[in-house]
Design a protein that fits this description.
Elements (H helix, E strand, L loop, with lengths): L9 H8 L9 H7 L1 E8 L2 E8 L4 E9 L3 H14 L4 H5 L3 H7 L19 H24 L6 H17 L3 H15 L1 H6 L2 E9 L3 E8 L10 H13 L5 E4 L2
Helix pairs in contact: 1-3, 6-7, 8-10
């Protein structure tokens, strides 16, 4: 294999080494701007986007990628390209569109041939965004309809709305939401120590049944600090009444 075959385009190198869109948006960001927050993860990349509810148009997007240079470059390109597009326009993009965007010259690939397969993940990631948007928009619209004049009433109503939104999801979607939080805030630490955690079930929207894997199965903190941290992360980001129960 020649040196040339291992070269990346200058545009790709810039996207991967100097990303402008790396980061995250949260519910407060969406609320302040009156936007819909959509979070989507596929394999090693997670996208956060804010969309205008009236036009379903993407106001801004950020990302985190855990797969190295190629994943960072692709995540950066996606966020750059979808900004200003409608959800339908953004989700119609293909991996080849992202790859072409990162080229210096139209006829010269942006990455070595051995890295081309990474662009196949783009369509799956955008599919997750498209599937999750209707629910996210419904929650945002419901929250926006609350009377902001009474702060106490607003706080109570928002909590109630969050509960209703969570309970309104089917079990598969609830597990997906839980896995997204675990992927971001819990699993990296577990995996660095040779462990992991699997979500087995969600019972009545409140009891999260898990199975520790690898080193976590024999770790003393799996029933103490680790379990507490996991439960607090899920309560903060999803629903305040969640209880995490390990399968012993």
């Amino acid at each position: 294999m020649t040196v040339a075959e291992e070269e990346f385009s200058k545009k790709f190198d810039e996207a991967a080494t100097q990303p402008k869109y790396r980061g995250a948006y949260d519910k407060d960001d969406a609320m302040v701007k009156g936007m819909t927050l959509v979070e989507a993860k596929y394999k090693d990349t997670k996208i956060y986007l804010l969309a205008d509810r009236a036009e379903d148009r993407i106001y801004s997007a950020k990302f985190f990628a855990y797969g190295g240079k190629v994943s960072v470059g692709i995540g950066e390109a996606i966020c750059s390209m979808i900004k200003g597009l409608t959800l339908d326009e953004a989700c119609s993009l293909k991996g080849e569109d992202i790859e072409a965007y990162l080229r210096d010259e139209p006829e010269v690939p942006s990455v070595p041939e051995s890295k081309q397969k990474a662009f196949a993940n783009v369509e799956e990631l955008l599919k997750v965004i498209q599937e999750g948007y209707p629910t996210a928009k419904a929650v945002a619209e419901a929250s926006a309809s609350i009377d902001k004049k009474d702060i106490k009433a607003t706080s109570f109503a928002e909590l109630s709305m969050a509960e209703q939104a969570w309970m309104g999801l089917n079990k598969e979607d609830q597990i997906t939401q839980i896995n997204m939080v675990l992927d971001e805030k819990v699993r990296p630490a577990l995996m660095s120590d040779g462990g992991n955690v699997e979500v087995l079930d969600v019972i009545d929207g409140e009891k999260v049944m898990i199975q520790y894997q690898g080193a976590c199965g024999s770790c003393g903190s799996s029933l103490g600090a680790t379990l507490s941290f996991m439960e607090q992360a899920l309560r903060k980001d999803i629903y305040n009444e969640l209880i995490v129960v390990p399968n012993m």
